Each structure stands twice: as C-alpha cells, then as structure tokens.
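Consider a protein example.
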Amino acid sequence: MNITITRKSRNAEALDGILSIDGFKLCDTAEHCATALAEGTYRIVRHKCKQNGRFVPLITSLTPNLSPLIPDCTKCKKLEFFTCNSTMPCVCHQIKIGNGIYNRADGSIILGTYIAPGCLKNSKEPFESLCERIRKLSSRGSEITLTIKNQY
C-alpha cells in the first residue's frame, strides 16, 4: 500500500495537505513546520506507543544508511489521561489524532477535515480507518510506504 501526503499550503508554522491511499483521497493533514519530514518516501510500521498505550502508524526511514527515525521511547511515560492533543516528550514521527498543530512540535502528522491553516476537525474516523488498514496489511506481511510531496 502506498500512502501519499501532498502538501498544498504552508504558513509560518503549519503545513496543510491531503492524504490519499493508492490515489484515493482519505482526509486532510496538518504538520508543524519545525519538525516536518522532508519530501521523500518512508516506511510505515505499526508501533505500540508507550504514551497512549495503543498501536499507531510510525514513520521510519526507507533507506538503511539514513537515521532510522525510531523514537527514544525511554522518555515517554504512559499518561493516565490522554487527549487527542497530548504531545510527545520528544520528536516522534507518528500519524495521529488531533485538531491543531500549534502546540505540537513532536513531528506528528494529524488527520481530519481542514477548517483553517494548521487546524482540523473530525480526526478520529480517518485515523481509525487508516490504522485498521495498516493493521490488516501488516498482519499479511505487506509493505506500507509513505510518499511526501510538496506542491505549495
């Protein structure tokens, strides 16, 4: 499966784009400019996030000689109360639920429906749909890639 994020606009802090799977649009995306990934192709793996206690799509490097982008999970503690806007204690490139990027410089890409630069709504449904597809494909041993393109 190939997931593509096409970044459509950029302002001082936010990168807004569209996430599509094999050419079909799933939802809009938002990222913080300070920790956004460069254009390119990455691998997505299922990763049990220690902070929120569930499996999330984790973005890792496709090229073995580059830094692996694997987070240092020793800094994370399980939160008793986890919200969609909880941030990670370190940069951890995950695809997550959220409604804004302005307090989030943790490298995450949030999903939802675009309402304003860097702000999304209705994040849970596309996130759960994506996670379920990734879970099924991972259990079959399929490779999942993420391609990021800039068009702003």
Notes: The radius of gyration is 14 Å.
